[in-house]
Amino acid sequence: MDVYEAVASRRAVRGFTDEPVPREVLERVLHAAARSPSGGNLQPWNTYVLTGAPLAGLKKRVAERVASGDPGDEREYAMYPPELESPYRERRAAAAEQRYAALGVSRGDERARARAVAANWDCFGAPALLLCYLDRRMGRAQWADAGMYLQTVMLLLRAEGLHSCAQMAWSVYRATVAGVVSPPEGLILFCGMSIGFEDATAPLARTHRAPLAETVTFLTGHL
């Protein structure tokens, strides 16, 4: 699989089989992903990978919180700006509508939408979960490094025939996650990433991207 194919086929998959992901494959991917760009070579990411009993235990604990109506822990960072303006507001709304339409969930069906959100904390059935933490002392540039690292991981997973779904949703129940992985106190949970083999029978929502002219400006000409 070449790079263009990996980029084109990568998407947020929300339906996985329970087929185990071999540890050697995950190690190979993460070893290669360490070559991701990193300003000053800080490599600010701290990665935890859960499978088997630890992952099952985490899913169970979070499911209990969700079922009780627990809204989650105090947020340590904002997932989105509080007031999204155009065109970002419309893009997010359109993506949500596409996803719920693929699931057959209507706008007013709040229970069905809540179940769809709760599926995040079951990893959408995936047998592996990556958790990405950063040192609290890091700044915006290092968060950008973490994003490039995570994208590299996702593309390498495609090269291995695997799919993924990056999920900031795991930060909502960060205290429960910390109770399982026991990260050093100085780390902050950025996101999780469900990893596995795609369930071809699961509903598929392929979100659109803005036209190139909307996001790219070329400055050309001769001196």
Number of domains as seen in the coordinates: 1
Q: What CATH architecture label applies?
A: 3-Layer(aba) Sandwich
| C-alpha end-to-end distance | 40 Å
The residue ranges in which pLDDT falls below 50 over 5 or more consecutive positions are none
Question: What order do the helices and strands come in, and which of them pair?
Answer:
Elements: H1 3-9, H2 23-33, E1 45-51, H3 52-67, H4 88-103, H5 110-118, E2 128-135, H6 140-159, E3 163-167, H7 174-181, E4 187-196, H8 212-215
Antiparallel strand pairs: 1-2, 2-4, 3-4
Textual characterization of the structure:
By secondary structure, the chain is an alpha+beta fold. The chain has helices at residues 3-9, 23-33, 52-67, 88-103, 110-118, 140-159, 174-181, 212-215; strands spanning 45-51, 128-135, 163-167, 187-196. It has a four-stranded antiparallel beta sheet with strand order 1-2-4-3. Helix 1 (3-9) crosses helix 6. This is Putative nitroreductase. InterPro entries: Nitroreductase, Nitroreductase-like, Nitroreductase/BluB.
